[in-house]
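User: Before I run my own analysis I want an independent prediction to cross-check against. Here's the chain; please return only the structure tokens and, at the end, one sentence I can use as a sanity check.
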Amino acid sequence: MTASSPPPNQLLRMLDPADFELLRPHLMTIELVRETVLSEAGSALRQVYFPHDGTVSITVGLSEGQTIEVAMLGRDSIVGGGAALADGIAASDAIVLFSGSASAIEISAFRDVAAASGPFRSLVIRHEQALFARAQQSLLCNTLHPVEARLARWLLRARELSDTETLALTQETLAQMMGVRRNAVSLVAHALQRAGIIRYSRGQIEITDLRALEATACECHSTVKAHYARLLARRP
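Assistant: Structure tokens:
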């Protein structure tokens, strides 16, 4: 990557050179450190993030302490873009799930570029539509599909964004992300391991049979990918 070329975020690379040049002077490369809270629901945003690698979990919670993930964002995403264009207040928590790096931009500069560039503003809006579709599909999936299919779908998404078959995960983290009890995750993880689909050790899951994992996942994974392809395809 040269000084003037876009970072390895798929949305930044969709921009024409002239539109990216409006952004480039304001972008700062930062490290995404695992468990770092990028934003909290109800708080004012300071920055918007374009992940290069690593993943960010978007979660919502109840006052009793339960949380559930509504989206996992990575190099195909923007973190905080919709809220930045609206009132600047985060609607959910954004927490780094897997470490990596990202381009960050101050919210004021982000708004200035969005006001100056119609294609960039359109890209952000289309990303928010795709993110809303992902959240809707996640709600449907969590309501109707068994834990085994949901876990397989979650692992497929994590693998896509991490580019690795081995994921540093605890059963407690998985249970929290999926909004289920830890013993439910434990039972399903053991079943997938017995089937030779994953290999689980303390704090780590290795995907050993990708095709079988894809067959185990519900259709929600492919449905969301189709939404992303439709909404975020490069515009002429």
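Sanity check: The first helix runs from residue 10 to 14.
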